[in-house]
Specification:
91 residues; mainly alpha; two-stranded antiparallel ribbon; globular
């Protein structure tokens, strides 16, 4: 993750140039210690964090963008039941 200049504490990330998204196993089958760390760090229940992580990473993949703001706006709109349009998400 450091080689890709990503936050090593993040439970999910996308490597766009590799066309791959990675989710930490703890998002799906958490151990008690890591689950508490994630819930404390992101201030949300683990099942909600999984949903946020997946929709956020979909934003990176669908919009083909490394921009965190754009990925987060995509994820928010997707979780709200909207059909996000990458072009309409520019800051």
């Amino acid at each position: 993750m450091r080689r890709l200049r990503l936050n090593p504490d993040s439970p999910a990330f996308s490597a766009l140039e590799l066309h791959e998204t990675f989710l930490e196993e703890s998002l799906i089958t958490p151990g008690p210690d890591r689950a508490k760390e994630l819930m404390d760090a992101f201030r949300m229940p683990l099942d909600e964090l999984l949903n946020v992580a997946v929709t956020h990473e979909l934003g990176h993949a669908m919009c083909r963008s490394e921009t965190e703001f754009l990925a987060e706006q995509f994820g928010i709109r997707l979780r709200s039941g909207l059909h996000p349009n990458c072009a309409g998400l520019q800051p």
